Amino acid sequence: MSKKSKISVFGSKPANAIIIPELPITVRNNCQSGRWTIGEQEYGSKLAMTIIKFSKFFGSLGQTQNTLWGQIWFVAEAGDLPQGVVMVTYIKGRSLSDFNCKVTEVMARGIEPAEGIFVPEFVKHSGQKPDEFGVIKPINYYSLSWQWYERGAKFSNVQDPILKQLDAQADKAWARLEQIAAALEDENNQARLIDLEATRNMVCIDHLSPHEIIRLMTSDETKNMMLLPPKVSEMEALAVS
């Protein structure tokens, strides 16, 4: 029996491994629809993730100018997003504040939050916003509320589809974390955790002192530098909550 012909262009993911793409896959947490999206494709409103890197930025992204951002690199553990692939998303405002509270809460228990599983959920809010004519109109929007669960936890008699998926995969939860840790040991993979496109109008503030951050956020020079808007198509593509 003759062997099938093979072609190798992009390669494939080995079994029991994860992919860290050379070009980052940016996932929008869409504050208007309450859905996770990649490009124009929606992937539902439910997600569980392992977070592999978190950084803080100040600057502009999409239509939001001069704001504090949280950059989250993650691997989906449950939900409709592709699994076994490292992706990146950005949070701000209520979503960032709630995330910070949850991380602090877990750390206070003497636990490294990254060892567990984060489950963000869209929460609907109502407010008011002027339209293009300056008329105040009611609006609805979403932010992310964050939950955290121990890795490998079992969830019996639950209806939530995300928790059901986590329950079904509980026996392999720590093995998946080992796969992620093994991938991150490679310096070449670590170097891929950079998103030059989305952060081109931002400054990373991870290693700045509080005084330096305040000076950065109130500097007219910094604000003017970040006021150059991206193209309309890029602005639409990068709109996040």
Describe this structure in words.
With 241 residues, this protein is of the alpha+beta class. It has helices at 93-107, 161-168, 173-184, 187-191, 210-218, 220-225, 232-237, and strands spanning 28-30, 35-38, 41-42, 47-61, 64-79, 86-91, 117-130, 136-149, 202-204. The strands form three sheets. Strands 6-5-4-9 form a four-stranded antiparallel β-sheet. The longest helix has 15 residues, at 93-107.
The helix-and-strand class reads alpha+beta
Mean pLDDT: 88
Oligomer: single chain
Regions with pLDDT < 50 over 5+ consecutive residues?
228-241
Structure in a nutshell:
The chain is an alpha+beta fold and 241 residues long. It has helices at residues 93-107, 161-168, 173-184, 187-191, 210-218, 220-225, 232-237; strands at residues 28-30, 35-38, 41-42, 47-61, 64-79, 86-91, 117-130, 136-149, 202-204. The chain has a 4-stranded antiparallel β-sheet with strand order 6-5-4-9. Strands 1-2-3 form a 3-stranded antiparallel β-sheet, with no helix packed on it.
Write the layout of secondary structure elements.
Layout: E1 28-30, E2 35-38, E3 41-42, E4 47-61, E5 64-79, E6 86-91, H1 93-107, E7 117-130, E8 136-149, H2 161-168, H3 173-184, H4 187-191, E9 202-204, H5 210-218, H6 220-225, H7 232-237
Antiparallel strand pairs: 1-2, 2-3, 4-5, 4-9, 5-6, 7-8
